Amino acid sequence: MPSLMGPVQRWAAQSPQAIALRDPRGNLTYAALALSARRFATSLRRRHVAPGDRVVLLAPTGPEFVVAYLGIQAAGAVLVPMNTMSSMAEIQYVLDDAAATALLAAPELGSAPARAATNQGVAHHLLREDLWAADVPAADVLQRAAEDTAAILYTSGTTGRPKGAELTVGNVLAAAEISVQVSAGTAEDRIGTALPLFHIFGQISVMMSALTAGGSLSLLSPFEPAAMLEMILRDRLTVIAGVPTMWNAVLRVPADVSRPRLDHVRLAVSGGAALPGPVAREFEQRFGCELIEGYGLTETTSQGTFNRGGKAGAVGRPVPRVRVEVRDGDGRPVGPEQVGEVHIQGPSVMKGYWRRPEETAAALGADGWLRTGDLGRFDQDGELFIVDRLKDLIIRGGYNVYPAEVEEVLHGHPDIVAAAVIGIPDEHYGEEVAAVVVARPGSTLTGRDVTTWARERLSAYKIPRLVTFADALPLGPSGKVLKRAIDRTGLR
């Protein structure tokens, strides 16, 4: 029976002294990583975490996240990672919705996680090295069925609150294997990123891919462009990954890095948002390596298509073991150059949405094909292009911002009658969060008031930076706001 600890255990047995995690504070070998994770599992069991229990994890990118991730899996529990910028209200929502048993949080995240856990009656534990210290005995790794839930990652559409995508043990193992195959990964690779590991891109396409291939992993947190460049050079990385905003920032670093100095980088990957053509071209010109784009979702465990050697603007061809179709409104596949909704099927497609059978049925067909909500087209050569989104999802610097969630918060303000949240193109972040607000008659509400209200209730990246006021919002026959009809002139 499988476990997400399987790849690490194999490399620990085969190459115990090979470096798994590179860190300025000291590298961690595969043998040490496997042992630390098993000790972590013991600490969880001592804290009454049983197999199948949901454990919420709030931790920045770093070795501690990796140890906790693997330790939770070794204990047979279910990982529920959260954005480290989550507000107390957001943490409470996930603790309640996931019916979590415990919350693990890095000490530097302050008091919000502990207060949220207390309010929900959930045990709170600080993520410290004493959880995997030498005096903690190593537990046996719990083997699980491939269909068992390994992780629940919260995501959302344009309606309702965030929902948890259930990713199975089989989903994660298959996705990691696919990622290794696509990247031609080997144990000789030195992989590095500053991506958040709580996000599916960093967690699967980088972290689990590296550990599956047996390569080493270098991690940076927080992201800082000069530090990212320094890590690439210091650790002589061969594979690097980030979102377009990161690469754009790295390009702005005034450093004299000639092509020969980055000859060790064989693969640079961009994901999480559309990669602007100018960024890709400038990256290749400056650093001498191609920046390649991929496409996937949380619900597909990050797998979908990959544009290795493909065309500018395309997200590439389906990855191995994954099928991709573009279908019309009746669910029938359409021909080349015809736009329709992108559907994905394969071993990395999620089990469903946690405790949401109706939404699961709406997203997953009886044949296991996932409706992505994205509009796309295949060209005559089989390259996929993402044209638009059926959802109103905003991607700001690689982070997903769901308008319905922000609108719900804004609608709670006593002086706001109506609000619509939309994405506005931004050179740095890709998209910026904007709000069009209808204020109560006679109100003195200002844009700063709106931003302050949101800041007290939402993560920083979800806050509308651009606010304008309107007398009314354009409505369709059913009363739904027609966001495409909103005048964006005052928001640019």
Q: What features would you describe in this structure?
A:
The protein is α/β, with parallel strands linked by helices and 492 residues long. It has two domains: 6-287, ANL, N-terminal domain (Rossmann fold, 3-Layer(aba) Sandwich); 394-491, ANL, C-terminal domain (GMP Synthetase, Chain A, domain 3), CATH 3.30.300. The chain has helices at 6-14, 30-46, 63-74, 88-97, 112-120, 169-183, 200-213, 225-234, 244-251, 277-287, 357-363, 403-411, 447-455, and strands spanning 19-22, 28-29, 54-58, 78-81, 102-105, 123-126, 149-155, 163-168, 190-193, 216-219, 239-242, 267-270, 291-295, 305-306, 317-318, 323-327, 340-345, 352-353, 370-378, 384-389, 394-396, 399-401, 416-426, 430-439, 466-469. It is globular.
Q: How does the major sheet shape up?
A: 9 strands, mixed
**Strands of the largest sheet, in order across it?**
2-1-10-9-11-12-13-14-15
Our Rg estimate from Cα atoms comes to: 22 Å
How confident is the prediction overall: mean pLDDT? 92
Whole-number tally of structural domains: 2
Briefly note the structural class of the backbone: alpha/beta
- The CATH C-level class name of the largest domain: Alpha Beta
End-to-end C-alpha gap: 55 Å
- Number-wise, the strands total 25
Number of helices, where a helix is a run of at least 4 consecutive DSSP H or I residues: 13
Question: Which stretches of 5+ consecutive residues score pLDDT under 50?
Answer: none
Fold topology:
Layout: H1 6-14, E1 19-22, E2 28-29, H2 30-46, E3 54-58, H3 63-74, E4 78-81, H4 88-97, E5 102-105, H5 112-120, E6 123-126, E7 149-155, E8 163-168, H6 169-183, E9 190-193, H7 200-213, E10 216-219, H8 225-234, E11 239-242, H9 244-251, E12 267-270, H10 277-287, E13 291-295, E14 305-306, E15 317-318, E16 323-327, E17 340-345, E18 352-353, H11 357-363, E19 370-378, E20 384-389, E21 394-396, E22 399-401, H12 403-411, E23 416-426, E24 430-439, H13 447-455, E25 466-469
Parallel strand pairs: 1-10, 3-4, 3-5, 5-6, 9-10, 9-11, 11-12, 12-13, 24-25
Antiparallel strand pairs: 1-2, 7-8, 8-18, 13-14, 14-15, 16-17, 17-19, 19-20, 21-22, 23-24
Helix pairs in contact: 1-2, 2-3, 4-5, 6-7, 8-9, 9-10
